[in-house]
């Protein structure tokens, strides 16, 4: 009977070890996902009235602390962003404050909390907004689409 108990104990121990190791690897992978923007699908910028702007990347999708969208002025003139919007497919909208983006300049819109600067804006959300596969839309103050970006 002692030998039988030992075999049951060893099998139970192995099962628990496999389950704990699997759970650790699962949560580690979820917390440390890396987005490879080189394989991203982008939709060309819609150039209306000489205005050119692109969504360069979405970093940290699904992780509030690192989630951000990077926008660049690819045109030759300053771009006033007041009233422009970022939208997701579920209808969540971020509206840009008074800000001018100069040619070649970029701005990051962070999902979480912080204090706005000329280079970093904060949405002040308490949960992540972006997910793999989401289509991010960038709209001007007249709600005309200027750029799209599909999160890889």
Tell me the structural class.
alpha+beta
Number of strands: 11
Strand order of the largest sheet: 1-11-10-5-6
Envelope shape: rod-shaped
CATH topology of the largest domain: Immunoglobulin-like
Q: Radius of gyration in whole Å, from Cα? A: 22 Å
Helix content: 10-25%
Please give the count of helices.
1
Which regions have little confidence, pLDDT < 50, spanning 5+ residues?
35-48
CATH homologous superfamily grouping of the largest domain? Lamin Tail domain
Strand portion, in percent?
A: 25-35%
Mean of the pLDDT scores? Answer: 85
Major sheet: size, sense and barrel closure?
A: 5 strands, antiparallel
Q: From N to C, what is the helix and strand string?
A: HEEEEEEEEEEE
- End-to-end CA span: 57 Å
> According to CATH, what is the class of the largest domain?
Mainly Beta
Q: Please name the CATH architecture of the largest domain.
A: Sandwich
Number of domains: 2
List the helices and strands and how they pair.
Elements (H helix, E strand, L loop, with lengths): L1 H30 L9 E3 L9 E7 L8 E6 L5 E2 L4 E3 L5 E3 L4 E2 L4 E5 L9 E3 L12 E5 L5 E6 L2
């Amino acid at each position: 009977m002692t030998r039988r108990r030992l075999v049951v104990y060893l099998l139970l121990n192995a099962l628990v070890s496999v389950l704990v190791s699997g759970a650790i690897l699962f949560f580690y992978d979820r917390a440390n996902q890396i987005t490879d923007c080189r394989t991203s699908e982008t939709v060309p910028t819609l150039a209306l009235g000489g205005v050119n702007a692109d969504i360069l990347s979405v970093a940290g999708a699904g992780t509030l602390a690192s989630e951000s969208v990077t926008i660049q002025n690819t045109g030759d003139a300053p771009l006033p962003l007041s009233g422009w919007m970022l939208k997701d497919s579920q209808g969540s909208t971020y509206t840009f404050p008074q800000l001018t983006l100069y040619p070649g300049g970029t701005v990051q819109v962070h999902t979480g909390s912080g204090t706005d600067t000329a280079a970093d804006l904060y949405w002040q959300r308490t949960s992540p907004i972006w997910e793999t596969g989401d289509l991010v839309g960038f709209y001007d103050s007249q709600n005309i689409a200027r750029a799209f970006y599909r999160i890889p």
